[in-house]
Amino acid sequence: MGRTTVEQSTNSYIVTNRLVQPEAINERELNSIAGKLLETLIPVNTETTKKGIILKSAIVDMIPLQAYFSGIVTKKMFLDVAIQLIDIVQECKKNLMNENNLMLDFDYIFLNPRTKKLKCIFWPIVDNQNPHIPSEFFKDFPFRVIFTKHEDHGYVTNYLQFFQNQAPFSINGFEKLIFELTGKSIEDKSYLPTDSVRLHGNKNQSNKLAGEKGNTGDIAYNLFGQQNHATMPEKSKSSAPCPKCGGVNDETANFCVSCGSPLMVGKENVQEPLAAVKIDPSPQTKTKTQTFSETTVLGAEGFDNGTTVLGAEALEEPTFPYLIREKTQEKILVDKPSFRIGKERRYCDYFVADNNAVSRSHADILTKAGRYYIVDNNSTNKTYIDGRVVPVQKEVEIFSGTKLKLANEEFAFYI
To answer: Which helix (H) or strand (E) is 363 found in, with range?
Structure first.
């Protein structure tokens, strides 16, 4: 593969690849992309110049994976991306397209910041002089991100051990592992995405998987098992949906396997303390998981009679994004549409103590239609997003895992 370049404007990217000898266009693969056989592949245009053949892809309203992972990365963010990329690789193989032509590179994988859906660039060429080997990309994947310190990192260890124990690399075995790390088994893959990584042309297959009740659009799907209970196939309606995320759980489960929220409506009290509940990544174990920050636990003195958990009432409370102050590990709820941070207690929603470098009304975090922005209020020592200076009085969008710095005071933002 020849020299690849990227041109960036306000909300778009143009990626260009100039072919070198002996590379040539693969017309069959080019036609497959042009016909949108795989909707997760970005369209490619060809140009013939005096200097040779040029391939171009235009990307609008998406960001490179490098930008998405420039902040702190959570387990959900990491595994969500891994599952989508595995499915893209597999669909290329199923359609007899050379998966080594996928641009599996953090700078050339693009993500919609609102839907978190991925799209990849695929160069339809033969005799590729610079192939991207999927196994090498996935093996290097964890070393390219900074994981949040507020989660158990056992899943990363299991991820890396796969590459030590598996030779040669098996994409099917790798997919099975990733599903298990999410708390689900590979059989749950029968619920297909409606707008992401599956082919839409095979209507017979789609109808079969939808229980002969319609196409894949009849099934509400989330990569982490958050399916719409009302639209699921009949065989799953006996399961208990999570009242918070909609995830499907066994009727006997006390906590949601997807988000850890309690499933206590109409059930007896849990008969074991939450401290004894652990996450087991094995596919056979249907473990009851619990997020300690989400539920208030009563009855610390009375474990003999079971622990009472505040369930339905707590779930009705609104959830807010939050900041983690790195110096103190303090959790700060961003519970207002306009949330001000600074060192002047009277004017700010969060008072930054013991730091004279922070301005009195340093910055605001704004919430608009489910999206989040930070605004620097002409501070003395500036505001930074992942090391980049925020322009004064300009709304700059932030995402879960974004690292913020007000002067020299560091925060991590989470949704």
So the answer is: strand 363-368
The first and second tokens of residue 111, run together, are 């993500």
The Cα 139–Cα 124 span in angstroms is 24
User: C-alpha angle with apex 116: 317 to 89, nearest 5 degrees?
Assistant: 140
- Say yes or no to pLDDT of 393 above 70: yes
217: which residues sit within 8 A by CB, 6+ positions away?
A: 194
Neighbours of 352 (CB within 10 A): 23
Strand (E) or helix (H) holding 159: helix 154-165
User: Phi and psi (nearest 5°) for 59?
Assistant: -125, 125
Each residue's pLDDT tens digit, 136-156: 999 999 998 989 888 999 999
Residue 94 has pLDDT above 60, yes or no: yes
pLDDT (0 to 100) of residue 159: 94
Distances (CA, A) of 194 to 190, 191, 197, 229, 290: 12, 9, 8, 15, 29
pLDDT confidence band for 227 (50 / 70 / 90): very low
Backbone angles phi, psi at 194, to 5 degrees: -90, -20
Number of H helices, E strands in the chain: 8, 26
On the question of pLDDT at 67 being above 60, the answer is yes
Instruction: For the chain, give the number of residues.
Output: 415
Query: Quick one: which of 188, 181, 187 has its CA closest to 282?
Result: 181
> DSSP string covering 269-301, please?
PBSS-GGG------TT-------TTT--EE-TT
For residue 300, CA distances in Å to 263, 296, 305 come to 20, 11, 10
Q: What is the pLDDT of residues 311-326, one digit of tens each?
A: 444 444 568 899 999 9
Element (H, E) at 350: strand 350-351
Using DSSP's 3-state secondary structure scheme, residue 144 falls into: helix
For the chain, give the mean pLDDT.
76
Measured CA distances, 241 to 92, 230, 257, 290 (Å):
34, 10, 10, 16
For tokens 């994981």, the residue is: 147
